[in-house]
Amino acid sequence: xxxxxxxxxxxxxxxxxxxxxxxxxxxxxxxxxxxxxxxxxxxxxxxxxxxxxxxxxxxxxxxxxxxxxxxxxxxxxxxxxxxxxxxxxxxxxxxxxxxxxxxxxxxxxxxxxxxxxxxxxxxxxxxxxxxxxxxxxxxxx
Length: 141
Prior knowledge:
Elements: H1 2-25, H2 30-62, E1 69-76, E2 82-88, E3 91-98, E4 101-109, H3 126-140
């Protein structure tokens, strides 16, 4: 019991000069409090930015195994469900993706797909247009 009381007593005696100094100088100014807050915010933002860079490097290293896999497009069919077109070699897979489950909906050859627009040119509804054109071609055949 005596041993546990000593550190508390020493701690309180050690903090007495700081308390006396704080009482004699008064409250810190609003400007110094603001600068301290801005500095703390800058430190937190710098840490978040560093973590983001670190995660990007990890993703780049992990992505080497997916060289033959390319996502051609995706569209949402529900709040948590999507239909995704994935190119694997010379085949294109149409996959249904839901939480905890991926189902192959259709498989087709890559040459059966309609021509894609020039790379780098964004096209609104590209996946929907491709799927619609493919379904119309299937009906005609």
